[in-house]
Amino acid sequence: MAEVSLIILAAGMGSRMNSDLPKVLHRLAGAPLLHHAMQTGRALDPTCTVIVTGHGAEAVEKCALAYDPDVLTVRQEQQLGTGHAVAQALPLSGKGGDTVILYGDTPFIRAETLEAMRAARSRHSVVVLGFHHDDEGRYGRLVAEGENLSRIVEYKDASDEERAITLCNSGVICADSAVLPELVAAIDTNNASGEYYLTDIVAVARAKGLSAGLVVCDEAETLGINTRAELAAAESAFQANARAEAMETGVTLTAPETVFFSLDTFIGRDALIGPNVVFGPRVTIESGAEILAFCHLEGCHISRGATVGPFARLRPGTELAEDVHVGNFVEVKNSILDEGVKVGHLTYLGDAEVGEKTNIGAGTITCNYDGVNKHRTKIGPRSFIGSSTMLVAPVTIGRDAMTGSGSVITEDVPAEALAIGRARQVNKAGLAVRLMDLFLSKKKKG
Ligand code: UD1
Ligand code: CA
């Protein structure tokens, strides 16, 4: 297929969000709305992507570049309408093949739908994505006969008969890159809003003797976010879809409705996810791993055969190799746990490397932060860290070593050594009974 350029409109303020944050930066499934649109667009493998920014431009540009450092951004200083927004992008976007225009606040458009529009492009210079909407709705109306579109009339400008049309404009457009600039250049502001309507390119194309067509998709796909309530509804739609998809690809979810995914969550086949598990951004889980109830994961990789939880928290930079076990009330951050490591209970591992088959006793803490800097803890393979060991970083424990339970380890431990860093125990014969008698007699007097 011919090359494709992508333009994403993201200059609007989104005043109905009632927020200091530009609308496209609000999060859906752990990712800014803009990333959802960019992910859809990426499926087309575009030769160039231009993001039009305006409100909160600096933050929106940063967000776009974080997803893909190759995108181009252009500022629309004044938001004079969708047609004006596209006009800003055209000098930067590709001159050949197709140009696809998406909105940054419309997260659910499917790649298959865009492919269908591109296929329809072989028959039309401009293809518009429509959907059927039964209520009044302030959408632009598509004036069409079958697949042939004659014009789009905005709700504000529509007559009663036109408002009765149930075929509406989603906003997504696929056009011949070679003619798009002249179509956009012909748009004026002669309408009820005094804006440059992108939708006018349909009538302009027809007047030039070019053909315009339409592809119809499900209304759910075209859902745009304008309010916090719509954002919440979109979140729930996303999650329902992600759960169904996970199960279809062979993941067991014991209580699907209690599991929450991020846009980029990846879970391999035959993994098992218990109830009440939350996946923050950047989590990958290999086949056959088990995440038990009430776990919170973010920015981590879990290998085959590993088990996590119940009640574990894995924070960014955590890598669990095969067959690692992380149990209840364990927090791991920025740490690599090699094959077969066991961290069963009540432990914090931060900025640590743990060698294979090492066992970390209950209540162990890597004291990684001195109030200013973070320090690393290295623990060799096959070591045994006694319960409630404080590992004051930076510190290295050699292979096949041990620490005595309750130790505060401030110095490196050589391979094969046992380190004990605690006060020696003394037993005072009979003192327990004598003390108890003393306390009781004091209580009686007082
Ligand atoms: C637009 C369509 C309407 C369609 C509806 C679907 C036009 C004229 N109307 O209306 O037919 O039914 O979407 O939701 O296109 N934007 C800019 N710069 C601007 C104006 C808008 O970047 O100057 C961006 C917004 O940030 C947003 C998108 O374009 O992402 C759509 O703009 P919006 O004002 O929401 O258009 P609607 O009035 O909803
Ligand atoms: Ca809108």
Structural account:
The chain has 446 residues and is α/β, with parallel strands linked by helices. It folds into three domains: 4-222, Spore Coat Polysaccharide Biosynthesis Protein SpsA, Chain A (Alpha-Beta Complex); 249-329, Hexapeptide repeat proteins (UDP N-Acetylglucosamine Acyltransferase, domain 1, 3 Solenoid), CATH 2.160.10.10; 334-446, Hexapeptide repeat proteins (UDP N-Acetylglucosamine Acyltransferase, domain 1), CATH 2.160.10. The chain contains nine helices and 35 strands. Strands 12, 14, 15, 17, 18, 20, 21, 23, 25, 27, 30, 33 and 35 form a 13-stranded parallel sheet that branches. An eight-stranded parallel sheet has the order 13-16-19-22-24-26-29-32, with no helix packed on it. It has a seven-stranded mixed sheet with strand order 5-4-1-6-10-7-11, with helices on both faces. Helix 2 links the parallel strand 4 and strand 5 (72-75). The mean pLDDT is 97. Calcium ion (CA) binds next to loops.
